[in-house]
Write a structure and sequence with these properties.
- With 154 residues, this protein is α+β, with helices and mostly antiparallel strands.
- It has one domain (2-149): Roll (Urease, subunit C, domain 1), CATH 2.30.40.
- Helix content is 39%, strand content 11%.
- It has 5 helices and 4 strands; from the N terminus they run H-H-H-E-H-E-E-E-H.
- It has a 4-stranded antiparallel β-sheet, with no helix packed on it.
- This is Cytosine deaminase.
């Protein structure tokens, strides 16, 4: 479908089958599932996966004039990947490394609309610990509710 011009973008708005909210983790899944289903190791090349996550996502949202690539006049959203991390070394092909080796823990810096929001893995715009504590408190409420309902947790 992608090769026929269908607007396909990668992204996440909920946990995928790996129970993460990481688009980077989706790169690997998308590439491998296409190879498996098509019985073809060349079915989803890494550059195509990266394109689906950048310009493909922008086109799917009909926003390719504003986002999806680093160009003058577009919103500058980008991440910087730690390419020296053990899981990233050695890098022979940067696209393959992003798709098959990178994970969300490799994101070192993040820039949204030209503004640095994460530096050296520290989020600068929110209180991470407060959010973590709120999430843990909510987890306890959900767990208690499920236990009180008698529903079996598996």
């Amino acid at each position: 479908m992608y090769d026929q011009g269908v607007r396909i973008g990668l992204g996440t708005d909920g946990p995928m089958s790996g129970n993460t909210l990481s688009t980077i983790d989706e790169f690997n899944q998308v590439a491998k599932v296409h190879k498996l289903v098509n019985h073809d190791r060349a079915a989803m090349p890494p550059l195509k996966v990266i394109d689906m996550a950048t310009m493909g996502a922008a086109k799917a949202l009909h926003m390719e004039e504003k986002i999806g690539s680093l160009e003058v006049g577009k919103l500058a959203d980008m991440i910087v990947i730690d390419t020296k991390a053990p899981n990233m070394v050695p890098i022979y092909n940067p696209y393959s490394a992003l798709v098959y080796s990178a994970n969300s823990g490799n994101v070192r810096h993040a820039i949204i609309d030209g503004k640095l929001v994460m530096q050296d893995r520290q989020i600068l715009t929110v209180d991470e610990e407060q959010i973590r504590q709120e999430a843990l408190a909510f987890t306890d409420i959900v767990r208690k509710s499920v236990l009180e309902s008698g529903e079996e947790i598996r």
